[in-house]
Design goal:
Distance between the termini: 46 Å
Low-confidence stretches: none
Bound molecules: NADP nicotinamide-adenine-dinucleotide phosphate
Oligomer: single chain
Order of helices and strands: EHEHEHEHHHEHEHEEEEHEH
Strand order of the largest sheet: 1-11-8-7-5-6
Largest sheet: 6 strands, parallel
CATH architecture of the largest domain: 3-Layer(aba) Sandwich
Number of helices: 10
CATH topology of the largest domain: Rossmann fold
Length: 284
């Protein structure tokens, strides 16, 4: 059996096209959606992510700007800038690129962003709303995965779902979304006793581990939907997911590739959240 590939790149392109009309409708009413991305330090990977986010906005007619600080900047300076942006009516979304340098209190910085501009969905208020099943902003990566399930015609109700990874950015919000969708959810971590026992039972398997080709074909239930969130850089410079794609392709029912899977969906859902923020502000 060869799995069907869920093409994240194609879905991302389709969604981004559909966003243009919403952006123009908002702009016509004087509410062009605006996103500010704050970058502290010069981590090359973060710089690429930030550039892609800003360009993704500009390509569909949104306003976007990047604010960069030296890694040595003090936290108060960044907090003051966030306060200024919170009060700026032309800015609907504020995002602080993670990770921050070690002298920052990451939680304090994320909590400083106004909850109604927290398009990353990391503010405690938004995390709480998601946990209660009434999400306001859904963290972009798991939100993208949910859109991929939708595109793949995957009905999550009653399915055994296993998430490998429990980070605040991916694993935990992914698990909450699956719970809200009616799946039976198991969340695994590095201490899980018998990982394969869990993954072999999964109708839906989401890998968010950060280890190249970690999920192998023998860990996958035949016909399962396998979602690869991982983005790992191999020594030869190529990108690789957390799933051994070639092996799992022969066992899974549906699978996402890397690159071209979850990655392009993440920025797409950031655009979606920012447009939604602007629509709420405009009373639409
Ligand atoms: P993270 O914060 O490092 O979390 C990794 C999780 O995997 C942790 O919960 C860890 O468990 C668990 N884990 C590690 N080794 C394990 C093992 N042997 N068995 C079971 N669980 C294990 O990473 P993250 O931020 O969630 O990101 C995960 C991956 O997704 C990375 O490759 C990252 O680059 C990628 N990512 C992609 C996107 C995208 O747009 N596609 C967005 C964000 C992240 P413990 O909690 O016990 O340590």
């Amino acid at each position: 059996m060869t799995a069907q590939i869920i093409d994240g790149k194609a879905l991302a392109d389709e969604l981004r096209q559909s966003f243009k009309a919403r952006v123009e409708a908002l702009a016509a009413k004087g509410h062009r959606p605006g996103l500010v991305v704050i970058l502290v330090g010069a981590d090359p990977a973060s710089e690429v992510y930030v550039r892609n986010k800003v360009n993704g906005c500009l390509a569909i007619g949104m306003h976007s700007e990047k604010i960069t600080y030296e890694a040595s900047v003090d936290q108060a300076t960044v907090l003051n800038k966030i306060a200024e942006l919170n009060a700026d009516p032309n800015i609907h979304g504020i995002l602080v690129q993670l990770p921050l340098p070690k002298h920052f209190d990451e939680e304090k910085v994320l909590e400083a962003i106004a909850a109604d501009k927290d398009v990353d969905g990391f503010h405690a208020e938004n995390v709480g709303a998601l946990a209660q099943g009434n999400p306001r902003f859904i963290p972009c990566t798991p939100y993208g995965v949910m859109k991929m399930f939708e595109k793949g015609g995957v009905d999550l109700t009653g399915q055994e779902a296993v998430v490998i990874g429990r980070s605040n950015i991916v694993g935990k919000p992914m698990a909450l979304l699956l719970i809200n969708a009616g799946a039976t959810v198991t969340v695994c971590n590095s201490r899980t006793k018998d990982l394969k026992f869990h993954t072999r039972r999964a109708d839906i398997l989401v890998a968010a581990v950060g280890k190249p080709k970690f999920v192998t074909a023998d860990m996958v239930k035949p016909g399962a939907v396998v979602i690869d969130v991982g983005i790992n850089r191999l020594p030869d410079g190529k990108l690789c997911g957390d799933v051994d794609f070639a092996g799992c392709l022969e066992v899974a029912g549906q699978i996402t590739p890397v690159p071209g899977g979850v990655g392009p969906m993440t920025i797409t859902m950031l655009l979606a959240n920012t447009i939604e923020a602007a629509e709420r502000k405009a009373g639409l």
